[in-house]
């Protein structure tokens, strides 16, 4: 679990609006970079994201949440309990996040995921 994501949503600047994050009220659908084909084009990378909305909406069972908690590490270096993980997801959801990044991403939208990163 990464408290910096919560802090980013509270105090960070959205890369698409240039303003403080306000994902709850955001209706912007940023344009995703197109991935060109062929050797003479620059490549665009799409980073993976994780959808928290189905966990918040109760579309999973407790065994899946327990299994998922083993894939997260809390700030004190241990795996969170399923309850702690759901509290973390709930806090992100209250701030408007529907998806969370799986890695660092410069063009990440907390509603739609990675919008493509030039590399």
Characterization of this structure:
It is built from four helices and six strands; from the N terminus they run H-E-E-H-H-H-E-E-E-E. It has one domain. Strand 4 (108-109) and strand 5 (113-114) form a beta hairpin. By secondary structure, the chain is α+β, with helices and mostly antiparallel strands. Helix content is 29%, strand content 12%. The strands form three sheets. The chain has a two-stranded antiparallel sheet with strand order 1-6. The longest helix is centred in the last third of the chain and has 13 residues, at 82-94. The chain has helices at residues 3-11, 53-56, 62-69, 82-94; strands spanning 44-45, 49-51, 99-101, 108-109, 113-114, 117-118.
Give a quick summary of the entry.
The protein is of the alpha+beta class and 119 residues long.
Topology (elements, then pairings):
Layout: H1 3-11, E1 44-45, E2 49-51, H2 53-56, H3 62-69, H4 82-94, E3 99-101, E4 108-109, E5 113-114, E6 117-118
Antiparallel strand pairs: 1-6, 2-3, 4-5
